[in-house]
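Q: C-alpha cells for this one, please.
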Amino acid sequence: MKQIPLRPLLAALSLSVCVGAAAENPAPSTGLLGFTEEGSVTQRALEQRFDAQLSANEMRDWLKRLSAEPNQVGSPHDKANAEFMLSLFKQWGWDARIETFDVLYPTPKHVAVELVAPTTFKAMLHEPPVAGDATSALSGALPPYNVYGADGDVTAELVYVNYGMPDDYKELARHGVDVKGKIVIVRYGAGWRGLKPELAYEHGAVGCLIYSDPRDDGYFAGDPYPKGGWRPQEGVQRGSVAKMQLYPGDPTTPGYGSTPGAKHLALKDAKTLLKIPVLPISYADATPLLQALGGPVAPESWRGALPMTYHIGAGPAKVHLVVESDWSLKPVYDVIATIKGAQEPDRWIVRGNHHDGWVFGAWDPLSGMIAELGEAKAIGALVKSGWKPRRTIVYTSWDGEEPGLLGSTEWAETHAKELQKKAVMYLNSDTNARGFLQAEGSHSLQHLVNRAAADVTDPEKGVSVLERRRAQMRVAGAAPHAKPEMKEDAKIAAEGGDVPIGALGSGSDYSAFLEHLGIASVNLGFGGEDDDDGIYHSRYDSFDHFDRFGDPGFKYEVALAQVAGRMVMRMADADLLPMRFGDFSATLDHYVAQLHKVADEEREKAENQHKLLDAHDYELVSDPTRPVAPPERLSDVPKINFAPLDAAAKNLKASAEAFQAAYAARAGDGFSMPARQSARINELMGRMEQALTDADGLPGREWFKHMIYAPGLLTGYGVKTVPGVREALEARNWQQADEYAAITARTLDGYRADLDKLTALLQQDKR
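A: Here is the predicted structure, written as C-alpha cells:
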C-alpha cells in the first residue's frame, strides 16, 4: 500500500505546532478503555516489558536478510522467507504453520515495446544496477510488467492520455482525438493503475503503456537514486491491474479459497482479468515515444517534467507492443502463528503484514513485516515469562499481496465461517518509514488507536506520536488550499480530543476481513518524511535504499511495533473489548451529510449546464479550430429520499449514547458481573461490525458486503463511504441511490438493534 507523502516543510511546521499542542492538551487518563483502574496499571507495566524486548538493530538485520534476493511470488526466496519466519515464530513459542494456496499468477515469457514509425526505437524494459546498491545487480527478478493484463501482439498509432482518468478522456474528445484502435500511453498518478488500461479498453484502445513521469516521482521531486531517494530514469513501477474493485484474490476462485485441488474458472470467465495488453515503462523508455507524437499540444495540466513539448497524437508515432505470459498456477505461502487465549480462546485478535515484494521489497512490504516480527518476539517472551493473554492472538505473514491480496483473501475465504464467529479485530500494516503515524479503519476502534498512540513517544520529537499526528493535521488544515474535511479534522485535532482516523478502501490485506467478512479492522504505518515514493514497486526498493532514505536507524520500526503491540495486547486482555460505537455514529453523521452535499452539487451542476446549453454558450468555450457537438444534456436531479438514512443515523446516535453510558457505569463498578455475562457482551461487541454488512453486497460487485466502507469503482484503492448511495449519486443513477439509501438504512437499523441488545446486557443485574 502506498503511503501519502508529506514533505519536509510540513514536518518542520508540525514540530512547532506539536510543542504547543503537547503543552495545552492535558495528559491522558491513566485508565484504559475496557480495563479496571488496577487492570490499567498492570497492563501498562506489561507494555513496558514489551517495549524492552524491541530492538532496532534486530529489525535491521531481519530486513537485510528478507530483502537479500528477489522476493516475488514463485521465487525461491519468497518461500525461503516464509520458512525463515516460521522458524522464528516457533523459536519464540508460537504455535505456527504455513498454509499454502495454489493461485493464478501469470508471469512474463516475452515482452517488447518498439517504436516503428516515424522513427525506430526499442525500449530497454530493464532496470540496470546502480552504484552503491548491493542487490540491484542480482539476477532472479522478473522483468517489469503489470500482472493480470492480457496477452497480445498489437501494432497501432500512439495517443497520450495524461493520467488516463475519466476527465482526461473528456478533454481528449474536446480536442477531437479518439483512442479507438490505438495504443494509449498514460502516466502514473491521479488514480489507481488498474483503472488506466480498463478505461483505455472501454474507449476502444488495443493496448496501454504506463510510464512514470519525473514530475511525479523523479528528478522534479528530488535527486534520483542513488544520489537521492527518487526514481532514476530507468526505474519502473510494476503493479497489478486486476479489477480488484470487483473482488480481490485469485481471479479464478471468486468468493472461495484456492486451496490445493479447488476448482478454478476458465480465464475467459474470470471477471477481474483485463482484455488488452498493458506494460509499465520507465521515463527513459517513454521519452522517444512521446517525442514522436504529433497532433495538438497537450493542455498545460497534462505536461510532465521531461525536456520536450508534450503532444497528444494520434500518431504519427506507431508502436508495436507484445505481452506473452505463463498463465500457470503458483503456490503462495501464508505463515500463521497462534498463542491461545487463557479465558476466551474463541475470540481472536488477528495481526497481519505481507512478505512478498515485486522485487526485493524492503520498503513495500518488509518494513512493516519486521515491526510485526519484533512484536511477535516480544509477545513470545512475555508468554514465556508467565503472561497469558485473555484472548487468542493470531499473527500472520501473507504471501501474494502485491498481485491482488492473494494470500490474505484466500485464507479469509477458506476460514470465513470461523473468522466471522471468532475474530474481533484485524490489525494490518504494510509499508512503514520515518514520519507521522497514519491510521485508517473501523471507527469503533478509533479510541483504541488514539490511546495506544498517546502512550508511544515519537523517536525524534520527544512527544507522543499522537500529538505529532495532531500537529500534522492542524498544519494540513491551515494550508491555503486545504479541503473542507481537512479543515474539520484540524479543528477536531486542535480541540484536544481523539484525532479522527481515515476510512479504509483497498490496497492491502485488510480488505477481505473488513469489506467481505465484516471484521473490525485497522491499518497502521508511519511515513511522510521518507523518500520512498520514487522507488515504489521497482528493483530499487532495496535494503540499501531503505537504510538511507526510508528509516535511518530503524526508529520508526520500533515505534510501529509499540503502537501495534499495544493495540493487540489491549484487545487481548481488556475485561470488555475496548470499542466505542459512538465514534462510529459521529463519523456516520459526517458521511450522511456528505451524501446530501453530493446530491446538491449534482443538482447545481445540471442546472448550470442547462443554462449554458440553452444559451448556446458552449460554443464560446469549445476550441474554435475543432468545433464539437454540444455535450449530452445532464438529467435533472430528482429529490432523493434520504429520510430513512437520516432517521437511521439519528436513532443510532441515541443508542450509541445509551450504550456508552451503560459501558461507563460498568467500568465504574469494576466490570463486576458474572463471567457468562461479560463473555456474552464481548461476543456481541466482537461481531458488531458484521451488522454493517449486507448479504447481497454492493451493486455489481457482490463480494464487497460492507455498506459503509468500500474501494470506489473509479478510485481503485481510494475509499467510498456509504458506497451504495454515494457511487449511485456520482453516476447519476437516481433510482439506485434511492434503493441503496433504504438498504443502508435497514443495515444501520440492524446495527442499532444489536447495540441496544448490548446496552441491555450491560444494564442487566446492575449492582
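A few notes: Confidence is low (pLDDT under 50) at residues 3-29. The longest strand covers residues 313-326.
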